[in-house]
Amino acid sequence: MLSGTEYVRPSTMDEASGLLANDEGAVVLAGGTDVLVAAFAGRMSVSTLVDVSSLPELKGVEDWGDCVWIGALTTMTKLCASDVVNRVLPGLGSAAAAMGCWQVRNRATIGGNLCNASPSAEMGPPLLVYEAAVDLDGVGGKRRLPISEFFKGPGETALAKGELVTGIRIPKPDAGLRVAYVRRALRRSMDIPLVNVAVGVQMGDGVGVDARVALGAVAPVPFRVPVAEEILVGRPLTDSVIQEAAEGACCPARPITDVRATAEYRLAMVEVLVRRALIQLAEESV
Ligand SMILES: Cc1cc2nc3c(=O)[nH]c(=O)nc-3n(C[C@H](O)[C@H](O)[C@H](O)COP(=O)(O)OP(=O)(O)OC[C@H]3O[C@@H](n4cnc5c(N)ncnc54)[C@H](O)[C@@H]3O)c2cc1C
User: Fold this and answer.
1) What CATH number is attached to the domain comprising 98?
2) pLDDT confidence of 1, banded at 50, 70, 90?
3) Quick one: which atom of ligand 1 is closest to the CA of 99?
4) Which of 59, 139, 168, 175 is most buried (most C-beta within 10 Å)?
5) Domain span at 46
6) Which of 13, 28, 139 is the best mutation target for the ligand 1 pocket, counting ligand atoms within 8 Å of the beta carbon and taking the most?
7) Is residue 59 predicted with pLDDT exceeding 70?
8) Domain's final residue, options 146, 171, 196
9) Looking at the 3D structure of the chain, how many domains does it have?
10) Is the predicted pLDDT of residue 2 greater than 90, yes or no?
11) Within this chain, do residues 136 and 183 fall inside the same structural domain, yes or no?
12) Which residue has its alpha carbon closest to ligand 1 atom 36?
């Protein structure tokens, strides 16, 4: 065990947020696949692990008519198995299925993936494409933020002290919006993405009427790419339009070189993956 670290399992939101607000070293424990790895490796100092697994406010996947609500404690395995996710948000299910390996997916939660705030977080690009909002609750009360305002930098979020993510709220997309999720990693499983991409396109009368492109792992936070989206709207999904959009998507990317890949390789992969996602969507639409 982690010597000197307390473990508590609050049964109410007030208790959980109070513990987090009043103890500088208190950390939320959800699935533990990031936090326990970091703590055991000595990369994170933790005075108290606040296990939130007993809080009912963080659980469930619900169809609320105009939106889908996903509790922060929902694991990747549960997302993959959810009827409502597969029916309404298939791009999110694809991203959940791509994460880690089945042992990790059984533990890893959507809330933990967002709060860990890795630039390559699997859930970032699909939630940006689905225009999700994050529900927060804490000592200062409840609030809601668009996902685009939640990520602040590597490992940094908009969470205030004593605040928890309770769930993710996703407006139901128009039935015509098709979403593809693609990623590039060094291995087929058990590896975080070098680059990950979600693309959504809705066609009408042969041209794009809505286009959404989001990138992960090529900037401090995942982000949408309006320049590529504008190229796709009002035009057919032809080879030349796809190529133009894929090249356009590279403009705002600012990847870094690290032990896993060079910046140049990541940039080249943005073009490849956006093109691949758009080809997939074009083939599905015929
Ligand atoms: C072998 C392995 C493979 C992996 N592969 C991938 C991969 O392919 N893609 C990928 O994106 N990630 C991957 N990861 C990282 C990790 O599994 C995910 O980020 C996962 O979703 C984290 O969820 P968790 O529930 O385990 O979070 P935890 O480790 O419990 O928590 C992560 C962080 O979020 C905070 N937190 C958790 N829940 C909340 C909440 N509700 N409110 C406020 N703060 C909260 C915690 O305090 C902590 O700072 C991998 C990890 C391992 C060990």
Assistant:
1) 3.30.465.10
2) low
3) 8
4) 168
5) 6-51
6) 28
7) yes
8) 171
9) 3
10) no
11) no
12) 112
Do 18 and 90 share a structural domain?
Answer: no
Of 171, 206, 225, which closes a domain? Answer: 171
Residues 154 and 119 in one domain: yes
Residue 1 lies in a domain: no
- Please indicate, yes or no, whether residues 215 and 158 belong to a single structural domain of this protein: no
Same domain, 115 and 167: yes
Q: Ligand 1: residues whose CB is within 6 Å? A: 27-35, 37, 52, 58, 72, 99-100, 104, 107-109, 111-113, 115-116, 121-122, 159, 164-165, 190, 192
Predicted pLDDT of residue 105:
97
Question: Which residue's CA lies nearest to atom 41 of ligand 1?
Answer: 165
Q: Locate the ligand 1 atom nearest the alpha carbon of residue 114 and give its number.
A: 34
Ligand 1 centre to CA of 171 (Å) is 24
Q: What is the pLDDT of residue 12?
A: 97
Mean local confidence (pLDDT), 175-193: 89
Domain with 17 in it: what CATH number?
Answer: 3.30.43
